[in-house]
Amino acid sequence: MKMIVTGGAGFIGSNFIFYMRRTHPDYDLVCVDKLTYAGNLETLAPVMDDPHFRFAKIDICDRKAVYDLFEAEKPDVVVNFAAESHVDRSIETPEIFLQTNILGTQVLMDACRKYGIERFHQVSTDEVYGDLPLDRPDLFFTEKTPLHTSSPYSASKASADLLVGAYHRTYGLPVTISRCSNNYGPYQFPEKLIPLMIANCTADKPLPVYGQGLNVRDWLYVEDHCAAIDLILQGGKVGEVYNIGGHNEMRNIDIVKLIIGTLGKSEDLITFVTDRKGHDMRYAIDPTYIHNELGWLPETKFADGIQKTIAWYLDNRPWWENIVNGSYRDYYERMYANR
Ligand code: NAD
Ligand code: TYD
User: Is residue 298 within 6 Å of ligand 1 at its C-beta?
Assistant: First the structure.
């Protein structure tokens, strides 16, 4: 089995590569990554010399490079994690989101059509469903919930999902799509809520909470997401969408206070800043379908996962300090200085 994993130098893709090396040691994995600001080859150091692993620095929008790779590697399966993934950046510069997330996905699927594939799996997000009101805790996203996006990021992911469905219906491409809730865990880029708050808190820097911090996200430990994708690859029905989430809804402010408490810092660090434009209020996944069809259940309780994650960031300071002290500093200044 040869699998191309795109975006494998990022947060979830790298965790997926480590997960697959452990659980399917006979698979050959080819990581395709453009190494944008979010991709980090250091993350992949543990597998770089592994004979079952190969890294290819390729932009998924580069049709020739992608076709050459398919020609050389003849993959059986493609799992597409590659994306621009940060909502705030999509509000600043939408165009690169449309290029990578939509057109890049198209190039990959064209390569799959040209060279043949057993499965193309698109890693999507619950953000394609828009948001739910805070006063309706009875409502959840199911696979039947209409797509209704808020940000350029979520619009680009929803567009890609539609294109994936179209390639299945029109060309018979054997596709599956998964839509997962917010992930947390090791190797998440420190622009996202949890690692940003851990990094700032350890340095006694202000903790920028958007609006009043009442927005709700449904958090899943990254390995549980990886396990779900593996199950979909093995037993998922072609043409289907699978929602992935562990019924773990939390308000942002409560996550921030939990991190402060664990690190023994003061809540005075909390700084309420101007809200994100178009800020989604609540995400909440109904995972009944993947549970009933494939037997998936999350294994990591949030209370354990968040402690493991905080411990990982404390034990791996050079990994994120290099980022925080590098060109990311300019982004942070731009995004937070006058907020
Ligand atoms: P990330 O930003 O950490 O990593 C993205 C990776 O894709 C990086 O390594 C980057 O270099 C690479 N990349 C970007 N553009 C590329 C291009 N044109 N060609 C090749 N590689 C490119 O993102 P993540 O959080 O790991 O998310 C991975 C996927 O999972 C995304 O598709 C995202 O939409 C989806 N997702 C994320 C979450 C979450 O909570 N992080 C939740 C649900 C779904
Ligand atoms: P984020 O990690 O960017 O994920 P997403 O927007 O894709 O859900 O943000 C999670 C939540 O945290 C979201 O409601 C925005 C909020 N947030 C802050 O309050 N402050 C911050 O500095 C960041 C990055 C996010």
Answer: no
